[in-house]
Amino acid sequence: MKPFTPLTRKQDSQPVRYLVVDDSVFARKNLAKMINAFGGEVAGEAGDGCTAITEYARTKPDIVLMDITMPQMEGIEAVERIVRQHPDARIVMVSSVGYQDNILAALQKGARHFVQKPVKPDVLYEIIRYVLSDEDAQGHSQAPATVGEARS
Amino acid sequence: MKMQLIQPFISAADSVLATALQGPTTIGDLTMERDDYQRKGCAVRIAIHGEIEGRIILDMTPDTALRVAGALTGEEVEESEQLVAETVFELANMIIGNAVTLLNDQGYQFKVLPPEKHPDEKSAANKAETEETAIYFDTACGRIFLDISMRYNLRSRAEHVPALSD
Predict the structure, then answer these.
(1) Which of A13, A23, A65, B151 is the most exposed place for a label (fewest CB within 10 A)?
(2) pLDDT at position A89, please?
């Protein structure tokens, strides 16, 4: 994997902390490797939506990478519950199922962005950079066209 | 079998394999099968129900699965039955998810059941109305097989699509 300029938290320049939520250990491992390449650290992992909610409260991550199709509680419902309790939560959906209805549902529940699997590291990096940016709310930063890129 | 139903799976497999394995893939000949599916190694079966229904099998030898696992994680992997199975599951999930995205955006409504390990040497006999399309992909990790059995469920489709009026 090519080297990336480390992404750090704006408030204290510390490494960005991530919660990785996916029922596949394999997928979590793959995302953890990308997080490492981005200069971040994995604060917690979860294999379903229920665990994601408790892990979010425990770890207070800067970014959540959330799968959609999972046992017990799916990712979109977990997003809704996390955002209800933590309105500032920054959640990026990471799923192989990326049709419009699914994406819209996730965004309406409070997800900030969507990446389709298989995840390209440079695409995920740009999305995280965008989601972390405080400038996006002021329209200073241009959102990456991730869904289309990820599908290509 | 209609090519409109098969093409999304072939396109998705080609795209996912090229991206995930970070190398070129070559699509092999597409054949129509009438015989029961013969498993090549570790095979995962995913069923679809709704306006289109059927099943997809992704299959590869354990050696190929281990090389795929190494490519996906970017590191040497130790041989284990669990790792082989999880690799095939993960790859199947990505391919089917991408194909489902294409089909769903075309307006088809259906449900994808969780993947399960294809248990037998042969698939269950269900050849009354369907035929299988078999295709393989040659990758740097080895040959990966895809077997698709899919058909329109006209009754289900009719329930969702309003009748056209003159």
Answers:
(1) A13
(2) 97
CB contact under 8 A, B101 and A97: yes
The residues facing B152 across adjacent strands are B52
Tally C-beta pairs within 8 A across A and B. 59
Q: What does the block give as tokens for A25?
A: 């250990």
A140 against B27, higher pLDDT: B27
- Residues B77-136 have pLDDT tens digits of 888 888 889 899 999 999 999 998 989 888 888 888 878 888 765 555 455 556 689 999
The pair of structure tokens assigned to A22 is 């996916």
CA distance B115 to chain A (A): 12
**What distance in Å separates the CA atoms of residue B157 and residue B4, rounded to the nearest whole number?**
15
Helix (H, G, I), strand (E, B) or coil at B44: strand
Residues sharing a CB contact under 8 Å with residue B124, sequence separation 6 or more, in sequence order? B36
Q: Of A86-100, B20-34, B53-67, B108-122, give the lowest mean pLDDT range.
A: B108-122
Contacting residues of B for A97, CB less than 8 Å apart? 97, 100-101, 112
CB B83 within 8 A of CB B148: no
| CA distances from residue B90 to A42, A110, B26 in whole angstroms, order as listed | 21, 27, 21
Best residue of B11, B19, B44 to probe chain A, by most A CBs closer than 10 Å: B19
Report the relative pairing of strands A17-21 and A63-66 from DSSP bridges: parallel
Host H or E run for residue A49 = helix A49-59
A26 to chain B: which residues are within 8 Å by CB? 69, 72-73, 86-87, 89-90
Q: Which of B98, B109, B113, B141 to mutate to test the interface with A (most CBs of A within 10 A)?
A: B98
